[in-house]
């Protein structure tokens, strides 16, 4: 098959357990680009975090960020698509989370809002200490999340809710799922994400392919978690990592090796090289 686009997830896929891109994975994507194949990073992360890794790859790539709520070319800040959560829904989400004493953070394309440094926000805070100013993630500590929307109304693409208690997570997820204007998906253990209704990596990938005039049959999509399912199902060739969730493996056309064993490289070696 003459593939024209590769959409690759970051965490658990392109990145190993140390949040690094192996030389084999990096070279595989570079070779694909040299063959005229468009490489697309597709992640649940905030855009600025994904941009850092896109620069490391040394290739020009559009980025699907925030689980598909934001698509942008990082090298010239060209926004293809955005689908933020309605501010009214944001305030309703915040109320439910605060009433149930949940940790959460939310973000637009470049600013990470949180009430406390914990879980991922603490991880990014420490990560910032080692980065150049242009690569740091803007983290804003806020006392009153609802007040932020009354004063500023930022474009929020995604909420992340995290807790070590899975029963508590499921209980709160059940309450929030009654809001028909939002979509909920899991992208990592001990957490779930909230986006606007209809937002997914698959929908974003479809929109990008329409812009680039590429058919779904000409697409390879590689991922490991539930938020990757939609793009794996959309692609002509859906690839699940060896460390992927079982449901993702069932939907995939191919199962490759794990993210710690250069699974992206090994899959592309068979399909493209």
Automatic annotation (TrEMBL):
Return the Pfam families for the record. Answer: Hydrolase_3 (PF08282)
Q: What is this protein called?
A: Cof subfamily of IIB subfamily of haloacid dehalogenase superfamily/HAD-superfamily hydrolase, subfamily IIB
UniProt xrefs under InterPro entries: Cof, HAD-like_sf, HAD-SF_hydro_IIB, HAD_sf
**GO MF annotations for this entry?**
magnesium ion binding; phosphatase activity
User: Superkingdom, according to UniProt?
Assistant: Bacteria
* Organism of this sequence: Caloranaerobacter azorensis DSM 13643
Q: Which GO cellular component terms are attached? A: cytosol
